[in-house]
Fold this sequence. Notes:
This protein is α/β, with parallel strands linked by helices. It has nine helices and ten strands. The protein has helices at residues 12-23, 39-49, 77-82, 92-95, 123-138, 160-168, 188-201, 216-223, 254-269; strands at residues 3-7, 27-31, 55-58, 72-76, 106-112, 142-147, 149-151, 185-187, 205-211, 243-248. The strands form two sheets. Strands 3-2-1-4-5-6-9-10 form an eight-stranded parallel beta sheet, sandwiched between helices. It has a two-stranded parallel ribbon with strand order 7-8. The longest helix is centred in the middle third of the chain and has 16 residues, at 123-138. The model has no long low-confidence stretch (mean pLDDT 88).
Amino acid sequence: MDKAVIVGVFDFVNFHVCKALLDKGIEVKGVQLVTEENEDLLVEKKLEIGRNANFYVISIGDIPNELNQKGTLVLSVYDLYMQYREDLLLSDDFKEQFVNLDNWEQIVILAPSQLLTNENTTNAEIIIKNFINEIKALNNHIQLLYLPSIFGPWQPETFMFQHSILNQMNRGKAFRGMREEINDALFVDDTVESIIEIVDKNVPGSYLLQSDSNNQWEIGAAFLGISEHVSSIRKIKQLDNEITKCTVNGNIPLPIALTKQIEHAHRIYI
């Protein structure tokens, strides 16, 4: 992979993917989607990337102009889902930018692992499933990566971990409800490393990323002193041979990883 277009480049997981690709010397063109995020936070993210000759910000309407570049298109519906922005996937103005997907060398979609459940499907999950099916119909060279709960610096407060951290700083807002996968949790730096390894192999298919240890979300919640009772735990259904399980090595111990997230929140919000 020499070039990548990342749709939603300043969203949580996508932002970390962008930085990792830039560190590898890969050219990244990022599409900034409309967001409810504080403008000051966007400025901080741009400063974190810094002046990089390999990074360009383009508009959503510029995506068709990138078709002849033969690069990789990355879209995180995971980030949209976790920030309650899945309705964007219903927009004709948004979807029409992906009409000529067959011209891309590679398409990578990051999706919530909740889509792999076969019970209590929500309207948001239906929207995402339908969108993914539409994309598959346009290009069969797709890597679909399912992610559980991802934590680390820049995690939105729609996640329980960040909501708890900001509450302890008296900066939290009302919690919008549990959306994340609580059967597993991965540190974002470890996750992005695995994502890039999968993408570099350029083998189409569906992948489920999972931690190398059990009960990581519960352990993280205990570390942060989260006592809220989570009433609904949905289990991932039996996976067929078309979905490859990929174990993400926890290179950073969970307490240290969460401490990084806490320190980052204090630096950004205080």
